[in-house]
Automatic annotation (TrEMBL), chain A:
Pfam families linked to this entry: tRNA_int_endo, TSEN34_N
Sequence segments annotated as region (Disordered): 105-142
Top enzyme category: lyase
Organism expressing this protein natively: Aaosphaeria arxii CBS 175.79
Biased composition range(s): Basic and acidic residues: 105-119
Domain TSEN34 N-terminal: start-end pairs: 9-77
Keyword S-adenosyl-L-methionine in annotation: no
UniProt protein name: tRNA-splicing endonuclease subunit Sen34
Family: Belongs to the tRNA-intron endonuclease family.
Automatic annotation (TrEMBL), chain B:
Residues in tRNA-splicing endonuclease subunit Sen15 domain copies: 41-195
SUPFAM superfamilies, per database record: tRNA-intron endonuclease catalytic domain-like (SSF53032)
Any Pfam family: Sen15
Gene Ontology annotations for the cellular component aspect, listed alphabetically: tRNA-intron endonuclease complex
Official protein name in the record: tRNA-splicing endonuclease subunit Sen15 domain-containing protein
Gene Ontology molecular function terms on file: nucleic acid binding; tRNA-intron lyase activity
UniProt GO BP: tRNA-type intron splice site recognition and cleavage
InterPro entries: Sen15_fungi, tRNA-endonuc_su_Sen15, tRNA_endonuc-like_dom_sf, tRNA_intron_Endo_cat-like_sf
Protein family (similarity comment): Belongs to the SEN15 family.
Assigned keywords, A-Z: tRNA processing
Annotated source species: Aaosphaeria arxii CBS 175.79
Length: 319, 195
């Protein structure tokens, strides 16, 4: 893990706060007890959503705490990209394009090498076993009409088709147009692949701190979040327990949560039924129900101080 | 409903009813009669349904001697109402040592692991389910109370139990059908019990 220098940038995209750097993600988890939520999936396999990856989405509360503590700053990502690429100098642009070309060439070379290796392997396998045994001839009349095209590739691997066109033609038991096209395709000229860059830093430099960007907009439970975070607790969203946060005494991978937290305004009215329900549910799950809010009358030394916070833990009494 | 003086009422009022409509309460000068009768009702429930003893109604804060936001009840439950999880671990360890010593003597029957925690005097905050509360009100209640309720005017307000270091009060909520539920409210983030 490379050391992270604070302040680090948090990308704001469509009013979501995202981290794209794995080093920053682990830094935030270790030093700021924030888990966030990995939201990245594979673009062409988006239904794969069991194991998600980078980027990490932060709650607005988390982003705000980081900004208020001076550990991070918000970057308007769309604006930064537009500006960064429009104002890029000609030399930089050419250098980057050249670099992309070079990478594309390397990729093309590599894929050619892989093809050759595969061919060699397939051929050596052929050398040991006669082809007739491996792929016994199939009478086309035995294959039902609708499946003829479908079953074809099983009898004739593509790699072979491209290497030994004549044999393939002999082996082919159907009058196959596709085999003929496969024969004419490969030439030994390397065309560099086109690379779509997956990161924009580089080529763009680390974005500058812009103080005009407003602080993240946070819900009213923010003061409770900040208090709990300052005490070293981890938080996860509390939807499944009907509260604002489920609060863990350490990393959620190691600990069960201790509190179900609901943030309230200082003079916000709540029903005692909610307190009783929360206490009962929390007790059932070996937790305590936590309500808390900030007294606006208490003078604060700084933005990050939590002197005015009052929190109450509620548990069931067995009587 | 009024009756002529010489006639007996058709239905005698319930004992609780006559308790809360006691003219002594109605003439209470400290708090509203509704709040006072609420405290009496909770005290009654604790005494006769939950066998609490040494019950007392507090109208003034033992710390500042100012008027409390509402009358509070204090008393001693028959068993400990709340055991701190760390204290519980300590008590279990002691009980285990005791059991080991006992099994050394007889060596055949193993007594069950039991520990005893002495009951402690608790604060009780009487509320009605129909009420709305705010953090501000809760804060005001907790500012007025001590860690341990005083048994009488002169007794100490600090605990002899080393595990009892923060303020707590038992929230007693009564519904219109006179069902009372009890939840303990601690000030601050308190490690939850492993029940």
């Amino acid at each position: 893990m490379a050391p992270v220098t604070e302040p680090f940038p948090i990308s704001r995209i469509a009013s979501r706060y995202l981290l794209f750097d794995v080093d920053i993600i682990s830094h935030v988890r270790r030093n700021h007890n924030m888990c966030g939520l990995l939201v990245g999936t594979i673009p062409n396999l988006s239904q794969q959503n069991v194991f998600l990856g980078i980027p990490l989405e932060l709650m607005p509360e988390e982003a705000r705490v980081l900004v208020e503590q001076g550990a991070a700053y918000i970057v308007d990502d769309a604006q930064a990209h537009r500006q960064g690429f429009m104002e890029m100098s000609r030399e930089d642009r050419l250098k980057f394009l050249q670099y992309m070309d070079q990478q594309g060439h390397e990729k093309a070379m590599e894929s050619k090498r892989m093809t050759e290796q595969r061919t060699a392997k397939a051929l050596s396998a052929k050398g040991l076993k006669p082809k007739e045994e491996e792929n016994p001839p199939v009478d086309p009349e035995l294959v039902p009409e609708p499946y003829r095209d479908v079953t074809m590739p099983q009898f004739r691997p593509n790699s072979l088709a491209s290497v030994k066109p004549v044999e393939v033609k002999e082996e082919s038991l159907f009058d196959s147009e596709p085999a003929a096209t496969a024969v004419s395709a490969p030439e030994n000229k390397i065309v560099p692949h086109f690379i779509t860059p997956t990161t924009s830093h580089p080529p763009l430099p680390k974005p500058a701190i812009d103080h005009s960007i407003p602080l993240p907009v946070v819900p009213k439970s923010y003061s409770l979040y900040r208090y709990v975070q300052s005490k070293g607790y981890f938080t996860m969203p509390g939807l499944r327990f009907g509260c604002n946060y489920s609060i863990y005494p350490g990393d959620p991978l190691r600990f069960h949560s201790h509190f179900l937290g609901t943030g309230l305004g200082w003079d916000e009215e709540f029903d005692l039924l909610d307190v009783i329900g929360g206490g009962r549910l929390a007790n059932r799950n070996k937790k305590a129900y936590l309500i808390g809010g900030e007294d606006p009358q208490v003078p604060k030394e700084s933005v990050t101080s939590t002197e005015g916070m009052r929190v109450f833990s509620i548990e069931w009494v067995a009587m | 409903m009024t009756h002529p003086v010489h006639m007996k009422p058709a239905v005698l009022p319930a004992p609780l009813q006559s308790l809360v409509t006691d003219p002594k309460l109605q003439s209470s000068t400290t708090h509203l009669p509704a709040l006072h009768s609420l405290a009496v009702q909770i005290e009654h429930n604790l005494q006769y349904q939950h066998s609490w003893t040494a019950l007392r109604i507090h109208t003034h804060s033992p710390l500042t001697n100012e008027l409390l936001p509402r009358p509070l009840v204090s008393g001693v439950p028959p068993e400990r109402a709340y055991i701190d999880p760390d204290e519980q671990i300590e008590l279990l360890k002691k009980a285990d040592q005791k059991r080991k010593a006992a099994t050394d003597d007889k060596s055949d029957s193993k007594p069950i692991l039991e520990f005893e925690a002495q009951p402690e005097r608790e604060w009780v905050l009487p509320t009605r389910l129909s009420e709305k509360w705010t953090l501000h009100q809760l804060h005001d209640v907790f500012t007025g109370i001590s860690i341990v309720p005083p048994e009488n005017e002169t007794s100490p307000t600090t605990s002899t139990n080393p595990w009892r270091t923060s303020k707590r009060a038992i929230l007693a909520t009564v519904d219109t059908d006179s069902t009372v539920v009890y939840y303990v409210i601690h000030e601050g983030m308190i490690k939850p019990r492993q029940n």
